[in-house]
Amino acid sequence: MKYYTFYRESNNFDDILRDINLKKVTKHKIRWEHHLMIGINEYKKGIDRIFSYITLKYGDEIRTTLTKDYRPIPNVDYVPVKR
Q: Which CATH class is domain 2-63?
């Protein structure tokens, strides 16, 4: 299963959910505040075209991480020791 997570401020994902090309291959749909996650079976024939279609049409709204990066920032959170 390959999952795509979309983010929109408007919380309106009707165009993605009604898309004829995606309806045929979407197995899971999960919605929460400002997010939509769809699951697609990646072992079907010709599915690479669907992955390209999603990336081209909805690529600006795809999110890869759902949490903030909490790693420390050098010279902001700490001062590295120079040797």
A: alpha beta
Q: Where are the domains of the chain?
A: 2-63
Please provide the DSSP assignment of 9-49 as one string. Answer: SS---HHHHT-HHHHTTEEEEEEETTEEEEEE-TTSTTHHH
* Per-position pLDDT tens, the chain of length 83: 899 999 999 999 999 999 998 988 899 999 999 999 999 988 877 788 989 999 999 999 999 888 888 999 988 888 888 88
Q: Pinpoint the alpha helices (H) of 40-80.
A: 47-58
Question: Please, which residues have CB within 8 angstroms of residue 25's CB and are 6 or more apart in sequence?
Answer: 40, 41, 44, 47, 50
- Which residues sit opposite 28 in a β-bridge? 39
Residue 24 has which token pair? 């045929």
Q: Which two tokens stand for residue 81?
A: 């020791």
Residue with tokens 């899971």: 28
